[in-house]
Automatic annotation (TrEMBL):
Keywords: ATP-binding, Kinase, Manganese, Nucleotide-binding, Serine/threonine-protein kinase, Transferase
GO biological-process terms attached to the record: signal transduction
Protein name in the entry: non-specific serine/threonine protein kinase
Purpose of the protein: CIPK serine-threonine protein kinases interact with CBL proteins. Binding of a CBL protein to the regulatory NAF domain of CIPK protein lead to the activation of the kinase in a calcium-dependent manner.
Cofactor: Mn(2+)
Family: Belongs to the protein kinase superfamily. CAMK Ser/Thr protein kinase family. SNF1 subfamily.
Reaction(s) catalysed (UniProt annotation): L-threonyl-[protein] + ATP = O-phospho-L-threonyl-[protein] + ADP + H(+); L-seryl-[protein] + ATP = O-phospho-L-seryl-[protein] + ADP + H(+)
Source species of the chain: Cicer arietinum (Chickpea)
Enzyme kind, highest EC tier: transferase
Residue ranges constituting the Protein kinase domain according to the UniProt record: 1-211
Classification lineage: Eukaryota, Viridiplantae, Streptophyta, Embryophyta, Tracheophyta
InterPro entries: Kinase-like_dom_sf (IPR011009), NAF/FISL_domain (IPR018451), NAF_dom (IPR004041), Prot_kinase_dom (IPR000719), Ser/Thr_kinase_AS (IPR008271)
E.C. code: 2.7.11.1
Family matches, as SUPFAM superfamilies: Protein kinase-like (PK-like)
Domain NAF: residue ranges: 250-274
Length: 401
């Protein structure tokens, strides 16, 4: 709860075109609602998955926008501390938006932070030792890793063994792609300097010749007086002071729309729920099966994709790779599934990707979609029985006539 509140307050301090905005925070007795800027382009990671590496012009533009956003944050005394493609979003015009300030920290008087956090492949070497560190310098390192990945299509530091990975990071052991220009190599070397005291600063990055090409500095928005800085406190206080046990309401004697639709056995509900945008992190599917049968279909799709199944509460399922694979690896594949019953023989399945390759995710979704469209054995046998009875009834009527 504290982390959520901290993230909200941090994001309310920031008002920049390359940072996701919070518009309002609302609270009820049991829930908090955060109204945020809608960013329709998805994660930068997904774009990189499809395009592999970006061309120099596009990579430079995104890096310029990232540096502008991070520079603005630092000037406001905010250090992100978890910069990575998963936390960078793209709007409908392809502009970058920094999100997820859950691990951010505010500037201290001595400018030294002590909490070690971030994602292993993007973490600065000074975070791997027990000493304090400069939040600004660590953010700069993460920006350098992202720039390398944008231009190369792969990470500068990547290893299935965590200790080997940290060893490479601390020694700044990386190999530039053959197509890197000399100016790109020079800038990356200045950013991926393992000694934070000698690492290039953001102001010097902005002055770099390669960075300055086609550079259009972003202008921070003026402070919006309509955003109430006390909204989040009121929302959290509402929960803390008024939370009571929710009463379970009695089921209505009236059937709902889904139950009415379900009476028509041949009606396929999948079109109501299935989404065709294969770049989304979450996809939904309709299932003409009971909730237990639907879960069995998910397990079958997971087995085919070599994923292990971990059943959670409330018909939620976690799907993980069976083979030994660390979470910080780019090839890691992690999904979650939630099944919602809308009628006795109709469910909605929501599949979400928290990590992993987008192509693998889409292949799993296509496999699951095919399985969900298959009629269950009991249903098929029941339809055959109905057909036989109908045929017998017709013969009987003919005999009577």
């Amino acid at each position: 709860m504290f982390q959520v509140q901290s993230e909200i307050r941090t994001m309310k301090l920031l008002n920049h075109p390359n940072i996701v905005r919070i518009h309002e925070v609302l609270g009820t007795k049991t829930k908090i609602y955060i109204v945020m800027e809608y960013v329709s382009g998805g994660q930068l990671l997904d774009k990189m998955t499809y395009a592999n590496k970006l061309n120099e012009r596009e990579a430079r533009k995104l890096f310029q926008q990232l540096i502008d956003a991070v520079d603005y944050c630092h000037n406001k005394g905010v250090y992100h501390r978890d910069l990575k493609p998963e936390n960078l979003l793209l709007d409908s015009k392809g502009n970058l938006k920094v999100s997820d300030f859950g691990l951010s920290a505010l500037k201290k008087p001595d400018n030294v932070l002590n909490t070690r956090c971030g994602s292993p492949c993007y973490v600065a070497p000074e975070l791997l030792v027990s000493k304090g560190y400069d939040g600004a310098a660590s953010d700069v390192w993460s920006c350098g890793v992202i720039l390398f990945e944008l231009l190369a299509g792969f990470l500068p530091f990547d290893d299935p063994n965590l200790m080997s990975l940290y060893h490479k990071i601390c020694r700044a052991e990386y190999i530039c792609a053959p197509w890197f220009s000399q100016s790109q190599k020079t800038l990356i070397a200045k950013i991926l300097e393992p000694r934070p005291g000698k690492r290039i600063t953001i102001s010097n990055i902005i002055e770099d010749e390669w960075f300055q090409t086609d550079y259009k500095p972003a202008c921070a928005y003026e402070f919006d007086p309509t955003v109430n800085m006390d909204d989040d406190s009121a929302a959290f206080n509402s929960i803390e002071q008024k939370t009571t046990k929710s009463k379970i309401s009695k089921s209505s004697s009236f059937i709902n729309a889904f139950e009415l639709i379900a009476m028509f056995q041949d009606l396929d509900l999948s079109a109501l729920f299935e989404e065709q945008d294969h770049k989304k992190q979450t996809r939904r599917f309709g299932s003409q099966h009971t909730i237990i049968e639907t879960i069995e279909k998910i397990e079958a799709a997971a087995t085919h994709a070599r994923l292990s199944v971990e059943k959670m509460n409330n018909f939620k399922i976690k799907l993980h790779p069976k083979q030994t694979m660390t979470r910080y690896s780019r090839s890691y594949f992690d999904l979650s599934a939630k099944v919602t019953e809308v009628a006795p023989t109709h469910c909605v399945v929501e599949i979400s990707k928290s990590a992993g390759d987008l192509r693998m995710y889409n292949e799993f979704c296509e496999s699951l979609s095919s399985l969900l469209k298959q009629k269950s054995r009991v249903s098929s046998e029941g339809e055959d029985l109905v057909d036989q009875c109908d045929a017998g009834g017709i013969e009987k009527q003919d005999a009577e006539l």
